Amino acid sequence: MGKAKDPAAVMKKSKLRREIKRHRSIYILALFPLIYYIIFKYVPIWNAQIAFKDFRAIAGVSGSEWIGLENFREFFNSFYFWSLIRNTVMYSVGKILISLPLSILLAIAIYECTRPILRKVVQTLAYLPHFLSWVIMYGILLTLLAPGDGVFNDIVKLFGGHPIDFLSNTSTFPWVVLISDAWKEMGWSAIIFIAALMGIDVSLFEAAVVEGATSWQRVRYITLPSIMPVIVTVLILKLGTILDAGFNQIFMLYSPQVYSVGDIIDTWVYRQGLLDFKFSLATAVGLFKGVFGMILVIFANWLSGRLSDSSLF
Amino acid sequence: MGRTKEKQHRRKVRLTTADHVFNIIVDVFMVFILIAILIPLWSTVTLSFRPIDFIGSNLRGMFLPPWEWSTKAYEGLFANDGFLSAFANSFKILVGGVACALVLTIPMAYVLSVQSLPGRRIINMIVIIPYVFNVGMIPAYLLVKDIGLINSLPAVFLPGAISTYNCIIMRQFFVGIPMELKESARIDGCTELQVMFRIILPLSKAIVMTIGLFYAVSFWNDFFHAMLYLNDSYLNPLPIFLRNILIGSGMNENLEVTAFAESPINAIKAASVFMSAIPMVIAYPFIQKYFTKGTLLGSVKG
Question: CB-based contact (8 Å) between A291 and chain B?
Answer without folding.
Answer: yes
